[in-house]
């Protein structure tokens, strides 16, 4: 589903954010991406979204070579990828409902179907009662969950999350992680960038570690942890 | 399309991992089955989108597979929504919008008003042109009888519409009654006024110039032995025509310039609108909005600005016409004419609104092309 081969990313200022990164994430897999601040986690996710373009190497998503992707195909790539952003990227001039509905509106879905889907997604993240509020009235954690609802509302085959538990207390973090497991259980390919190493340990999944833009560790499973315990 | 094929190859992850969770994607996500209690007619209508959605199970958004009709209706829905939404946004800041409308209206009303003025001037001058009379002054030696014969001869000519004879005595009488110098004539022994044949040239047939025709006639009349002098202010008519030709060019140039001004005004307004909705554009692009989708509200904003400006320009012009109607009527009756100002006809009005709308749309399109590309999620 996701294939990085010898990917380099150099920003305009000359900074080498990624160096020779290669990995393959099969369809339906779930992995964590960790590393110090500035290691290149967000950069890696942005390459998959085609928010940035690799300087060298190839990124293939769902059989599509991103370096050869024409600009007018980029929106359709992004519709396949649900993203929970580090900085939420919510719109404060409209309601929680409208924020979550956006990907469906863009796809041109029937309004009645949109209503059903959005409420189902909000229900999942426990915010059904707040659908009419503006995100600005919500706490950081609640905003994060609105972002999650929006990322999954159009049922994308790929889910990327950048620090999805950054603002959450341990209890909520665990619940959100549980949510991601559920998505993964129904076949969504999930990749989560996070600092929260303890959480990563508990989840017992493949872990990739970036250091200064290089992939220094890529372990398929944590052997000491029980697999599938929470599933 | 090849894009579809590649999507299908990656498709249905729910099926591949069935062992993990058991429940299908749709069940876990509480997708509701088509509601059973719907009226039968509605149900058949609803089926297509449902089928389309299930075909996208696992989230492989196979947009191209969406039934063409469903795509069209969702496209129309979005157009409708954006049209209404962008109009509402305008009404939210009524003063700013009104000012933009006014600027556009003035820029449009100026050339349109001048165009109307020219139209009216042409109408007036074409009346003069048709009624252009030649005064054929006869030599003093020609007596009244010969003068009447000559008048009959002239009447028979193809290029003469009408001719009538004014004898020396009649000329004197007319002068006495109309000039107010009647008393002065008492001191003259002789009648100084010549006999005149007033000739009205035939209207020019299509494709021939009235001026050339009249000039030809005049030269022939002048060559006659009984004729002393022929008067026709051809030079004046010629001058009027060249002034009007100049006026037409000036109006065209002004219309072009002010059209560019409208483009700039709309473009700048749209640029500000884009700037103020930057975050929204970024988010829409992040969740897969196409350029057309992002552009749409701004294009509608431009259309509304153009149309609003056009309507306002139309109002301005008609107000000005009403305001001018009185004085024009007074002036016309002073010349014993029943001339009335020619207003914007139906075709002209439609054309004005069409042009203004088009200008608004084009201005928005240019601004969007310039500024939207620069806004990319970072
Ligand atoms: N647009 C940019 N231009 C130049 N340098 C950038 C840009 N974006 C990121 N960088 C640099 O690239 C490096 C990797 O950044 P990135 O955001 O990927 O880190 P990260 O692993 O996500 O960090 P964090 O955990 O703090 O979010 C950093 O050193 C950063 O300064
Ligand atoms: Mg980051």
From TrEMBL, chain A:
Residues 2-229 form the ABC transporter domain. GO terms for biological process: cell division. Keywords: ATP-binding, Cell cycle, Cell division, Cell membrane, Membrane, Nucleotide-binding. GO terms for cellular component: plasma membrane. Homodimer. Forms a membrane-associated complex with FtsX. PANTHER family: CELL DIVISION ATP-BINDING PROTEIN FTSE, IMPORT ATP-BINDING PROTEIN. NCBIfam families: FtsE. Belongs to the ABC transporter superfamily. This is Cell division ATP-binding protein FtsE. It comes from Terasakiispira papahanaumokuakeensis.
């Amino acid at each position: 589903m996701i294939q990085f081969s010898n990917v380099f990313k150099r920003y305009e200022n000359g900074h080498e954010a990624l160096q020779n990164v290669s990995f393959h994430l099969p369809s339906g897999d779930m992995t964590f991406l960790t590393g110090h601040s500035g290691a290149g986690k967000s950069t890696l996710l942005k390459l998959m979204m085609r928010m940035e373009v690799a300087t060298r190497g190839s990124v293939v998503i769902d059989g599509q070579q991103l370096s050869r992707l024409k600009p007018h195909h980029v929106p359709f790539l992004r519709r396949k990828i649900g993203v929970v952003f580090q900085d939420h990227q919510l719109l404060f001039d409209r309601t929680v409902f409208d924020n979550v509905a956006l990907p469906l509106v863009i796809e041109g879905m029937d309004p009645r179907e949109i209503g059903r889907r959005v409420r189902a997604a909000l229900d999942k993240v426990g915010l059904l009662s707040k659908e009419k509020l503006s995100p600005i009235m919500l706490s950081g954690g609640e905003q994060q969950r609105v972002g999650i609802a929006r990322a999954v509302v159009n049922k994308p085959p790929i889910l990327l999350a950048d620090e999805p538990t950054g603002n959450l207390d341990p209890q909520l973090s665990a619940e959100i992680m549980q949510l991601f497991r559920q998505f993964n259980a129904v076949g969504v390919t999930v990749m989560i960038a996070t600092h929260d190493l303890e959480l990563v340990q508990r989840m017992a999944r493949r872990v990739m570690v970036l250091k200064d833009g290089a992939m220094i560790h890529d372990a398929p499973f944590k052997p000491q942890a029980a697999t599938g315990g929470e599933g | 399309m090849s894009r579809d094929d590649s999507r299908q190859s990656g498709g249905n992850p729910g099926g591949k991992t069935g062992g993990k969770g058991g429940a299908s994607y749709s069940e876990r996500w509480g997708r509701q089955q088509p509601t059973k209690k719907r009226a039968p007619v509605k149900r058949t209508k609803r089926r297509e989108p449902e089928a389309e959605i299930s075909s996208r199970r696992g989230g492989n958004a196979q947009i191209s597979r969406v039934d063409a009709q469903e795509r069209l209706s969702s496209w129309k829905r979005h157009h409708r929504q954006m049209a209404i939404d962008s109009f509402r946004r305008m009404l939210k800041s009524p003063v700013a919008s009104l000012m933009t409308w006014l600027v556009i209206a003035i820029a449009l009303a100026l050339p349109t008003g001048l165009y109307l003025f020219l139209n009216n001037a042409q109408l007036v001058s074409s009346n003069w042109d048709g009624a252009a009379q030649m005064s054929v002054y006869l030599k003093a030696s020609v007596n009244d009888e010969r003068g009447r014969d000559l008048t009959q001869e002239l009447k028979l000519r193809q290029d003469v519409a009408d001719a009538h004879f004014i004898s020396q005595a009649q000329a004197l009488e007319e002068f006495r009654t109309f000039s107010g110098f009647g008393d002065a004539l008492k001191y003259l022994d002789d009648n100084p006024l010549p006999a005149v044949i007033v000739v009205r040239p035939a209207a020019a047939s299509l494709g021939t110039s009235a001026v050339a025709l009249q000039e030809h006639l005049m030269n022939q009349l002048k060559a006659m032995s009984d004729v002393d002098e022929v008067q026709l202010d051809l030079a004046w008519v010629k001058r009027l025509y060249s002034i009007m030709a100049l006026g037409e060019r000036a109006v065209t140039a002004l219309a072009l310039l002010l059209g560019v001004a409208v483009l700039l005004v709309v473009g700048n307004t749209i640029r500000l609108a884009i700037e103020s909705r930057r975050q929204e554009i970024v988010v829409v692009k992040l969740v897969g909005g196409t350029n057309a989708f992002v552009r749409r509200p701004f294009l509608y904003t431009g259309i509304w600005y153009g149309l609003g400006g056009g309507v306002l320009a139309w109002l301005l012009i008609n107000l000005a016409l009403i305001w001018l109607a009185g004085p024009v009527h007074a002036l016309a009756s002073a010349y014993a004419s029943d001339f009335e100002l020619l207003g914007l006809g139906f075709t002209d009005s439609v054309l004005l609104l069409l042009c203004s709308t088009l200008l608004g749309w084009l201005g928005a399109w240019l601004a969007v092309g310039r500024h939207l590309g620069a806004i990319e999620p970072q």
